[in-house]
Amino acid sequence: MDCCQCQGIEGLFNQREAARRLKAFQRKGSETSTRVLLDALRAAGIEGATLLDIGGGIGAIQLELLGAGASSATDVDASTAYISAARDEAARRGFGDRVTYQHWIASSAVITICVAWSAPRRPKRAGSMASSTRATPGSPG
Class assignment of domain 4-133? Predict the structure, then answer.
């Protein structure tokens, strides 16, 4: 893509940065905040689930959840370098056939993400967060 927004995104989230982040993930695993999210999702039960990962980056969430039993994932990202890194790592881990990738720039669209949060404050355990945020098919949130 040759629009100025795309060039800025590709310049910031480039191959060098994607490689650096992927190497850190391979050495240390997910960042702390991502681990909290992953723990909550695992506690809620993700066996056979499908994942839509908007802004999937190098694929940390996809890879962890596929390894924990999710059946498939779709990664939507604005950076072709991050998509490439995620695709390569998924293939290396044997998940290449379970992930699809979409390069997309939200220049003229609005995305809303609704999370049901019934707890009045942050739960003490990740598991309690997972049980309060699990959406059911057909629910509005």
Answer: alpha beta
